[in-house]
Design goal:
two-stranded antiparallel sheet; globular; 491 residues
């Protein structure tokens, strides 16, 4: 039987490989700040026209999240009007501009190497631009893969996007490590009221002047590669069918699924797509609510309190080398993401989410119960607390990490997918910001035990939500989801 009849898996996988580079950039851009923030803080502490307080550093460290909210919010409009492919090209360009501008915010206009308020504003604008790329890629990459993949392996292929995100974070940890090399990272000490002083200034001069720039600039390599390669992948058949380009849609479907199957899939697409788009609430409130709450729970379970602040947490536990544990945690996360990739089509989406939620609850409550003992140098409690945190993190990686993206790419009908995904992912970034900005103040004022007990309770609520309200999408075509939500409306 010829490839024309069977379809080409090599062609499909090459397309998906390019698309998941967007996920890698997502992880790279959000994690690059972890290595650069100390040098960046020390650099702007040298400003003479304003005082670079903890508030300014917190805002600068998280300013990309503002762009993420913007990018995810406009993703539906862009994906519906420009198409999935052009939207991803635009995201790649945003990544590249941000990497260049964050490395050289002076851009031949401002005085080079002179920290002041104007330079801080310009730097944050470039970080917001990168955030727009992240927000756009976070919504459109899973959508693109979901629309181009055959239903029997769609969950596995969309899960690779989460693998790429975690891999991107791990890559940038190592890149930052090698850029720093033998140079010394600046040590900064608080003197109260959000004012800080530099301890080892002369020894850390290279890191302060150049190190953070090279870390941000390193993203130009994967960003440029993504922006170029995405030009060579096809538009999704479902978008092409929505704009009346049926011949192109069928040609792509034939390459992926074979000629006979392509005609059948195109007929199903056309049967559910009498118009290009429909109002968001066409399929009822529950359809949108499920998508939004999947995004909310993915963040509200508190995972970014680990991903963004792992060195701080392990340090608070009393471990001597928190960065080593952070890297080990990253490797564990990558391994457990693979579990989802290779079981999502066998076990289904709901079982993985429910088991992962309960695993996270056990891990989070374990941290809550052992943290006080760990910080009091009880070696047994330190070990149990570390293991609990690893269980919490690993449980997320085979469940809410990848499966949330799979469901968001699958659960909405064709005619509202662009707008519905945009709304869901915007909520994800909003709650990402809420969790990221509330973790340290809550941990300092109420205690780490309280924060993780709260996350544990939220994990249990998330399991109940999935059990009661989330439809299983395993083995269903994207067109089946239109029928599913229409049937729920008539009941």
């Amino acid at each position: 039987m010829s490839n024309t009849t069977k379809g080409s898996k090599a062609y499909l996988f090459s397309i998906v490989l390019v698309a998941v580079l967007g996920g890698l950039l997502f992880g790279y851009d959000t994690a690059v700040i972890s290595g650069a923030e100390k040098g960046l803080q020390a650099f702007f502490m040298g400003a003479e026209d304003f005082t670079y307080t903890d508030f300014w550093h917190g805002f600068t460290s998280s300013s990309a999240l503002i762009g993420c909210i913007i990018g995810s919010s406009i993703s539906g409009v862009l994906a519906s009007n420009w198409g999935r492919k052009k939207s991803l090209i635009f995201a790649g360009v945003m990544f590249f501009i941000s990497a260049w501008g964050s490395m050289c915010p002076e851009t031949m206009i401002l005085p080079e190497g002179k920290p002041d308020m104007t330079l801080l504003i310009v730097f944050n604008i470039y970080r917001v631009i990168g955030g727009v790329g992240v927000g756009l890629a976070s919504a459109v990459c899973p959508m693109y893969i979901g629309e181009i993949a055959p239903s029997n392996i769609r969950g596995m292929l969309v899960s690779w996007n989460q693998f790429a995100i975690i891999f991107g974070q791990l890559v940038v940890y190592f890149v930052n490590f090698f850029i720093l090399g033998d140079h010394v990272a600046p040590a900064i000490e608080s003197v109260g009221d959000g004012i800080n002083k530099l301890i080892n200034g002369p020894e850390a001069a290279w890191s302060i002047e150049h190190g953070w720039r090279y870390m941000f600039g390193s993203e130009m390599v994967p960003a440029g590669l993504f922006a170029i390669l995405i030009c060579f992948v096809p538009e999704t058949p479902r978008y092409l069918a929505s704009i009346g380009a049926d011949a192109k849609a069928e040609a792509i479907l034939a390459k992926i699924n074979g000629a006979n199957k392509a005609q059948e899939i195109l007929k199903d697409i056309k049967d559910t797509m009498t118009v290009k788009t429909e109002p968001i609430m066409t399929y009822g409130f529950l359809c949108i609510f499920v998508g939004i709450m999947l995004s909310v729970f993915q963040q509200a379970v508190g995972i970014n309190a680990v991903l963004y602040f792992a060195p701080r947490i392990y340090g608070a536990m009393g471990f001597d080398d928190p960065m080593m544990l952070t890297v080990f945690n990253g490797i564990v996360n990558l391994g457990f993401t693979c579990i989802a990739i290779f079981t999502v089509e066998k076990l289904g989406r709901k079982p993985l989410l429910i088991v992962g939620s309960l695993g996270m609850a056990i891990g989070a409550i374990g941290v809550a119960c052992t943290f006080d003992g760990a910080i009091n140098n009880d070696s047994t409690m330190q070990l149990m607390c570390m293991i609990s945190l690893m269980i919490y993190s690993a449980s997320f990686m085979f469940s809410w990490g990848p499966i949330c993206w799979v469901l968001i790419a699958e659960v909405f009908p064709n005619t509202i997918r662009g707008g519905a995904v945009a709304i869901a992912v915007a909520f994800q970034w909003i709650f990402n910001w809420i969790v990221s900005t509330s973790f340290v103040p809550m941990a300092n004022s109420l205690g780490y035990w309280f924060v993780y007990a709260l996350y544990g309770i939220i994990c249990v609520v998330a399991a109940i939500f999935v059990w009661r309200l989330v439809p299983e999408t395993k083995g269903k075509t994207l067109e089946d989801m239109t029928k599913l939500w229409k049937d729920k409306l008539t009941k």
